[in-house]
């Protein structure tokens, strides 16, 4: 297949539920997309596996516990048979955790686990996927962040109960900007999906998954070189750092 006719390839972490699952679902509505959906326990990912029937695009499910760095390093080998000669067009670092704590009640192990999942894993996965991204036609990385990682917005939220989480997302934002500086030829965005109804966002969240994800897909697929390094909302608005 020539590079102009081949499918657009995506790798998405944390695809078993929530934002990752809905992102896979919407991408599979388009026959042009080949989605590699990574999750911790594929045999238990009923909703994800169920997307295979009726999908217009192609779905491949792989096992990935993002805090297991050996398995993160093994991702390029695991996806090589799926990609064949194609590179990877989009890497979406979506898997994330939020464990409530406050600045003065941080359990060091919780902070480390949060950083490991939300910051270190995206850093390592981006690093090891660079060779396949280099072969891709889009060369885009989407880091799923949060407005809770914005220092400029912190007064709006107060001290709150997201200390470790906010720190991990602020660091992810800096990672994004550093990735852009090191590799001006790729397009890397750090993006807040909005406050979305998921297990993490809770049922009182005002944004429906389908609306958040439709916006996310629009933002990342239309992003150009001039957008690289930006911190954006799912509707494309800039978030103050
Ligand atoms: P959910 O809790 O609904 O889903 C989290 C996903 O991440 C699950 O698929 C979970 O897998 C996966 N995951 C967590 N830890 C790991 C791990 N160590 N290895 C592999 N997968 C893992 O959260 P959301 O869908 O709401 O969140 C997705 C992203 O969006 C996160 O990065 C979050 O910070 C961000 N976000 C969400 C907001 C919201 O309002 N919902 C707001 C701002 C940002 P498993 O099923 O195995 O646990």
From TrEMBL:
Gene3D superfamilies: NAD(P)-binding Rossmann-like Domain (3.40.50.720). It comes from the Eukaryota. Coiled coil: none annotated. InterPro entries: NAD(P)-bd_dom_sf, SDR_enzymes, SDR_fam. GO terms for molecular function: oxidoreductase activity, acting on the CH-OH group of donors, NAD or NADP as acceptor. CDD domains: carb_red_sniffer_like_SDR_c. Belongs to the short-chain dehydrogenases/reductases (SDR) family. This is C-factor. It comes from Trametes pubescens (White-rot fungus).
């Amino acid at each position: 297949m020539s590079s102009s006719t081949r499918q657009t390839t995506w790798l998405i972490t944390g695809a078993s539920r929530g934002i990752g699952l809905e992102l896979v679902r919407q991408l599979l509505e388009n026959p042009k997309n080949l989605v590699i959906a990574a999750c911790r326990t594929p045999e238990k990912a009923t909703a994800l596996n169920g997307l295979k029937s009726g999908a217009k695009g192609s779905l491949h499910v792989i096992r990935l516990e993002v805090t297991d760095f050996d398995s993160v390093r093994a991702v390029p080998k695991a996806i090589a048979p799926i990609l064949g000669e194609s590179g990877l067009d989009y890497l979406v670092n979506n898997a994330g955790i939020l464990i409530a704590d406050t600045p003065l009640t941080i359990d060091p192990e919780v902070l480390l686990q949060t950083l490991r999942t939300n910051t270190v894993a995206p850093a390592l996965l981006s690093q090891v996927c660079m060779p396949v991204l280099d072969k891709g036609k889009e060369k885009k990385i989407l880091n799923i962040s949060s407005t809770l990682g914005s220092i400029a917005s912190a007064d709006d939220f107060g001290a709150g109960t997201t200390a470790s989480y906010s720190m991990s997302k602020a660091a992810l934002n800096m990672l994004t900007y550093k990735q852009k500086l090191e590799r001006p030829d790729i397009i890397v965005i750090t993006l807040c999906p909005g406050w979305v109804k998921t297990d993490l966002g809770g049922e009182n969240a005002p944004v429906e998954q389908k609306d958040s994800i439709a916006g996310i897909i629009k933002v990342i697929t239309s992003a150009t070189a001039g957008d690289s390094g930006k911190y954006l909302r799912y509707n494309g608005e800039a978030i103050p750092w």
